What does this fold into?
Amino acid sequence: MSSFRGLSIGISGIFAQQRALDVTGHNISNVNTVGYSRQTVFHSGSNPVNLGYTRGGTILQLGTGVDVQMIRQYKDEFLDQKLRKGLNELGYWGKRQ
It folds into this structure.
């Protein structure tokens, strides 16, 4: 039974890394796209299974693998605000003209 749990842990790691490779490929594909923000994958350990307690009161746990916690975009807030302000002014003066 424990060998199947080991396979499950390995499979969860493979799927998490596959998602990270997908995001990397997406970043590479869009390197020349104007306005594209690079993305990064964050992993975390999935919830362990509690097996019981030892005589000393310590909880015995079995790991269950890894999960993709989130995919985050990297943006520069300062540049985004300047861009929004510039586009707003461009629209204003275009209307006035």
